[in-house]
Amino acid sequence: MLSILGPETQLCDRVSRREILKIGALGLGGLTLPQLLQAESNSGQSKRQKAVIMIYMCGAPSHQDMYDLKMDAPSEIRGEFRPVNTQVPGFQICEHLPKLGKIADKIIPLRSVHGSPNGAHDSFICYTGRTTRNQPAGGWPAIGSVVSKLQGPANPAVPPFVGLSPDARHPPYGSPGLPGFLGVSHAAFRPSGPARKNMVLNGIDATRLDDRKQLLASFDQFKREADSSGSMVGMDDMNEQVFNILTSNRLVNALDLSQEDPATRARYGKGDPKNFGDGAPRNLEHFLMARRLVEAGARIVTLNFGRWDFHSNNFSGLKNTHLPLFDQGLATLIEDLHERGMADDVAVVAWGEFGRTPKINKDAGRDHWPAVGGGLLAGGGFKTGQVIGSTDRLGAQIADRPIHFGEVFATLYHHLGIDYTAASIQDLSGRPHYLVDNYSPMPEVI
Fold first, then answer.
1. pTM here?
2. What's one Pfam family here (predicted)?
3. Terminus-to-terminus CA distance in the chain, angstroms?
C-alpha cells in the first residue's frame, strides 16, 4: 500500500490535499486538476445546459392552412391559400409563411398531433401533455414546473421556468403553464405578470439607484452577511429565488432588450405588444427575449402568441394579423439559435390545443376539431428537415403516424437529460407519478 504522509493539513487517510493533486498528476500524464478540467471543456465533454422554448398558439391554429394544405380537396375544404415549395422534397408550406419555408431544413412540421379530449379551449394539454381528466389533487404540473423541481436553476440568479405572457381575458390564453401539485415555488416567473413586483427593491431611493456600483456593493455585503449567518438556510424556495434575483443583474440584463444588437432587434421586429382580443399579444420581442433568457440560464421559457380561434374570417385573419408576424418571429428565433451555436441545446416547439374543422363554415371560418391538429419542432439537436405524420385527403383524420402530445413531451424530457422512465414527482398525498403516461420519445427525431 502506498502511504504518503502529508504536512499539517491532512485528510482522514493522512494524505494531504496538495499530495493528492500531485498523485493525480502522476496518473494523468502530468496534467493538474485545473488542466484536466480545461481539457474536458475543450473536448466538449462537459455537460452543456439544455433548454426548451415553447410557443403556445392560443386558440388553436388551422394546420391545414399552414403546413398541411389540401389542394386536392373541394373548395369548401382547401380554402384560399396556396402552397409553395421548400428545399425539403415533398414539403410545401403556406405562401404566407415564406421565412419558415426558407429554413425548412431546420424545422419539423407535425401533421398528426392528437390527444385533446374535446374542443374546449385550454392551454393545459400544451403545457403538460395530459388532459384535465382524473387529475390528482392540486392538478398536473406544467413542464416548466417539473423541470424546476427535478433540475432546479442552472444559475441561482435566473428562474428555471419563465413565462412570457401578460394576463388574458380568457385565463388559459394568458397562462404560462401552472405548477399544479408542485406548488407556487415551482411556478413560472412572469416578468409581464404578477411576479413583476418581486423585481422591485423597496426602500431604495433614486440616488442610490443611480449609483449602480454602490447599489451592487451593498447587495454583495448583504448577501455575504446573510450567508455567514446561515439565514439563507431558513428561507423558503420562493424567497430564496427572489433574493438571488435581486442580488444579481443577470435576469434584469436578459430582459433588457436595449442591450441587444440593434440589427438583431430589427431582424426580430416588434410585432404588437397588445393582447389580441381575449388572447395573448403578437409580441415579436418575446421571441428575442426567450432566446436571451435561455442564454442567461433559464431552462424552460413559454410564450403565448395571438388568438387563432377564427370561427369567422379565418383567411383574412390569418393573412393580415397572425401568419406574417408568427413567420417572422419563429423563423428568426430558429435562425438565431443556429447562428449562435445554440440549436443543439435549445429545443423549440410551437402548437395549439387542437385542430380546426376541415370544412369552412358559412362565416368563412373554421371551428374546433379535436380529432387532429398540428405542431412544429426545431432545434434540440433533432433530425430536422422532415415532415412527420399525415392526414387524409380532407384533413379530417390521421392517415399515418399519430403523434400524441405525450410523445412530444417524452422527446423534450429526453432532450433535457431527464430519464422519463425513472424520474417521478410526488403529488400532495405523497404518491409518485411518472412524467409521461406510457409514451416514448419520437424515434424519428432523436
1. 0.83
2. DUF1501
3. 48
